[in-house]
Queue: 2 jobs
Job 1
Amino acid sequence: MKITSEEIARLANVSRSTVSRVINNYPNVPEPTRQKVMGVIEKYGYKPNAFARVLAGKSNMEIALCISNDNSGDGNRWKGMESPYFMRLIAELITQSKAYGYMISVLVISTEADYEEIENRFLNREICGGVFVGFEFQMERINAIAEKGFNMVVIDPDDSLKQADNVKAIYSENERGAFLAVEYLLKKKYARIGHIRGDNRLSARERLEGYCKAMEAAGYRREELPVEYGGFNREYAYRAAVRLMQEHQVDAIFAADDITAIAATRAAADLNKRVPEDVGIMGCDYVSLYDDLGIHLTTVEISVREIAKIAVRAVLDIEKEKQIVCRAAIRVGLTA
Amino acid sequence: MKITSEEIARLANVSRSTVSRVINNYPNVPEPTRQKVMGVIEKYGYKPNAFARVLAGKSNMEIALCISNDNSGDGNRWKGMESPYFMRLIAELITQSKAYGYMISVLVISTEADYEEIENRFLNREICGGVFVGFEFQMERINAIAEKGFNMVVIDPDDSLKQADNVKAIYSENERGAFLAVEYLLKKKYARIGHIRGDNRLSARERLEGYCKAMEAAGYRREELPVEYGGFNREYAYRAAVRLMQEHQVDAIFAADDITAIAATRAAADLNKRVPEDVGIMGCDYVSLYDDLGIHLTTVEISVREIAKIAVRAVLDIEKEKQIVCRAAIRVGLTA
DNA sequence: TTGTATGCGTTATCAA
DNA sequence: TTGATAACGCATACAA
């Protein structure tokens, strides 16, 4: 059926052990022998059985991507598995890990049992690392698993994070990104800049802080800044944008994310304001989707590819830092 | 470290074989014994080692989702891994297969070697089935693997498909969907309906055919129908829409897909035409994305969830049909 | 109905 | 430097 190391050994006139040593690049096998064995391996297209290796003690070259499922069910589909962010992240992680010879398996975490599932896989050596991304993780569970000696990476953790030893965290430069965005608007000579903030999670608070700092640096007083609640929700964001433009008379809006920015763009259109002439709109957390619709937001981008690359390197312990920050950059579009 | 069937056997005063029989629901184990063993299993939270089972002859409860990589690099990102269609499909497949206790592993197919990888996994019992989706598959390779006795499902294959015995095909009701769409426009009293067609792949040809048939049924002559090439590309589609509206004076457009429809909507706006009053626009192949932007296309929907559900059932051979067609339905929005 | 023995394909240990 | 041999954790044919 399928050629095994046994066969290879026979054909190369060596023992299974030697074949194994060649496969695993052990140092104690002389070059001629290695050549001979490799020749037979190539000739017959032999590929070692991954499952057997794992059973025999090796770790599987597979990384679990653990996504927290969103059960809130508020009809806002920009969450959970279908979120374009997660989707791009999955795609990039698959690509990046493949470059190191690793596979990605996607696990959706929704119940307590799922954490046991993960731990089980670690114990069985089915996976050699876990990358966590999403909102509502139980950090204690993650820490507990990590403390048994397994590598975990958490992307954009909330500040509640107490990192166990084997846990690495990847942060996005939210505050600085927001600061850059507002700075950009100020340079464009917008004078009255409002902010549509997200909800209470860390990223939203950091972006708000960045906005405030940039405005303060420009001489504005923090207490008087026009900030409205958008909650990363397109309906709330739309109304927030209307309030900012009508009640606060802003001439520019820094939105907590791109969904919010798109909603603000609609609001501007409905109020007969031209973008960017009458009102400048700045997004955040670039989502590639809108380009394809011919909508080119000026926004803050933190490369998903970069995050994926770092995540893979971190979980494989190539990257040793426990706290890694991904840089934000302005992506110039047509809305500001 | 981890409890094994050996331990369970000892604790339950039976042999490993009996534990195995209980786990695998063999009939020849009396209820009291089963209860006793199950009790110990529950108590210690024993989970059989999946890899060991596979090595011992069982098939892994895992389905490979094989996605053809798009190397065309024409800058149109609505293809390959990042396509929202694939992304939703992945999400739905994960959900649906989980319901049957199966996992999904995603494989991106770009080179010849990838087919060998798939075959290798089948031979090692790492996967028990393959679901193929994308454009440029080498059906001969798929058939060759299937002929060795493995289950394969191809979603929306091109007509070049010669199905081997273990290959099942899932088709979308493209022609009927297009027919319904045009019928819908006719009922809405649009009189001059044009079509922006896709490229030369089967789905595009079928949609064109559905459009033609519906128009013929309404008394139009096929040769005189206003059809322009859009190629599923937003730039081409935009220009096609302009031609239809300016040169052909259409009052409604049936677009080959939703990307095309969105481009047509932009074109209408740029020509100062109101949608749907001055011109009706009908999409096809519903992509959920646009709702979140406040754009509500009237379009043709073929449920991705339904496709995923059927794909899982087909690959597990619960669904026995070799050719399965997924129904299309009109999704009413604001553009027609 | 149950237990024993063997095999799955690999790695690791120990001798040679 | 190499080769036997014993794990790894489970399923199964066969015997009892």
Note: The radius of gyration of chain B is 25 Å.
Job 2
Amino acid sequence: MARTSVTMKDLAKAADVSVMTVSRAFKADKSIGADTRERILRLAEQLGYVFDSTAANFRNQRTDFVSVILPSINNANFAETVDVLSTQLALGGMQVLLGYTGYSLAREEALIDQMLRRKPEAIVVTGGQHTPDARKLLAKAGIPVIETWDWPQDPVQHVVGFSNAEAIQGVVDHLVDRGYARISFLGGEQGDDFRGMERRAGFVAAMARHGLAADRLVPTGPAPASMKEGAAALALMLDRFPDTRAVVCASDPIAFGALTECQRRGIDVPRDLAIAGFGAYEIAAISHPRLTTIDPMPSEIGLRTANLILRLLDPTAPEPEAPEQEGPIRIRIDWKLIPSESTGESTGTR
Amino acid sequence: MARTSVTMKDLAKAADVSVMTVSRAFKADKSIGADTRERILRLAEQLGYVFDSTAANFRNQRTDFVSVILPSINNANFAETVDVLSTQLALGGMQVLLGYTGYSLAREEALIDQMLRRKPEAIVVTGGQHTPDARKLLAKAGIPVIETWDWPQDPVQHVVGFSNAEAIQGVVDHLVDRGYARISFLGGEQGDDFRGMERRAGFVAAMARHGLAADRLVPTGPAPASMKEGAAALALMLDRFPDTRAVVCASDPIAFGALTECQRRGIDVPRDLAIAGFGAYEIAAISHPRLTTIDPMPSEIGLRTANLILRLLDPTAPEPEAPEQEGPIRIRIDWKLIPSESTGESTGTR
DNA sequence: TCCAAATACGTTAACGTTAACCTTGGATGA
DNA sequence: TCATCCAAGGTTAACGTTAACGTATTTGGA
């Protein structure tokens, strides 16, 4: 904190008014003369006064913080959600407090505990999977809790998300529709990577629904899966299931890694092998060939989450019938299948 | 903030002790009996008490916040710096406050102003370019100011960065070394994208140093340049300077976009055209061919910045001779050239 | 002309926690 | 046996801002 901090008291003395008048000068308060306000503001400039939000927040019992907990910021999808969320909340005067779990539920619990001490107005978590203690903390926090990027079977409170399993089924349907049958899955098997695991489960379910064997499962390492791991997984897949005609990947980085491995081996995509990803990363739209993928609408998630929070915290909002309990809000995000070059043209059975 | 907040006062009443004793129970304070502490902690659990850091921070005049201002979080390089920085600072009990400028100096100024009101312990900015008012705000903030990801000619205070111009010269040297002469540059021309512009300037200077013409400059759009813009820029370059044998790109996304455009056109990289990027993104290490690039050591920047902050704020640090003014610290990060497949083998003049 | 209402301030107390200092009842040692 | 010390607490006041309320002074309408 600044060593020599000029406070409102100093300003008041210099302007020969009360501290309250100074306070009013910095607010949209009409019960202060225009000239007085201007004089105080000019004086503030001169004395180098900086408004102390921490004191104001403390006094008002309102921090204007929103805690956002995510696995990692080093992921284009999460980054986009956070970008939009932060920007939108900033418009409402709120500041996001970011925390990273490193894909560990234990760290998530510790983070939630820490975050709650900062008295945020709301807390946003990624995924619907938490430790029992984390759930308890969230439930008793007394502030809006929003789970995102998932469609929890038993939500804590509000939800802005989608079913990863369903989205993957969209990919499988697309491949089956194009005539593919011998389909492998790359990714998601390890420990705390619940989104990856849910995508794998969705793959298995979708294959079963089509009467196809879903035993071509190739794991990648613990989350986050890198492009390199995608390449390695494809190599492993070719070794174990050489007659595979299409691969569904748990993420675009995995898919792109797999694509590069094909390029190195002279395997033509999609002629010899089709590849589908997940996430609609920038790379999917420009790689050669372009990757078929699922767009989970990360900016939509960020936007809807921000707007939900602003609405929940808006004191001027029209109270519903039951004054205190409006009930949790569940916003389902519509993922979009983006069919592209890497899963080829529809040409009968393959 | 939680509707019904249990305070230390409530806890004190329940435990039949003074508020101060409760406070001590939550600190590493030895002047409290082990049994009393345990009793209070258990009671806290029961009553659902949550420690209020905002009050503690206010009372202590210490927020444990560090403001970090960057162009965008949706950039793997910045994201990595922030990831490491946040994680490292969290070890010291500090929380990062993130702000995004969207590559606009005007927004940077507004952000700095807002951030300073939160009374952070230190402020980290990206780049050495600021509006005059922003500079003034930083200089008078009374807290450590660290400029990163750049090597400012006139630093505000501390610096953890590198010269983008020099780094690009490393790329040019590498290309010239491999025998390339007709070299184009893609990227960096627009408004507030100073890092891109500095890289372009570095390119021009390096070419001049080698006695080569540096007139093959192809701009991309305003920052951040996308892969798609990289592809478009390459197309434009081929049109304008068809005899080009190598392209230096202001970033890896641009370089990868250019690479895909080559693939689509049947241009063999590096046989027909060499491509070099900047940033050592994941994609550079796995694309086919792999991209020659510059690693600006983003995690190193984050780590060194975090450690610098922790050291500057550590009250137990040995005071230097002059008690108050140690003088600004300038940490130069060593970028690394990563030569790879996209700039081919050294085979004489091209 | 006179009173009510509006305008432009000032006063008081409080938000939850903690540094600094004070108090008490043993234990310790000579 | 008594001064001394320590462990384990308690008291007081303060961090900077603002909601709520109080008080002059001016304004305007009948």
Note: Confidence is low (pLDDT under 50) at residues 320-324, 346-350 of chain B.
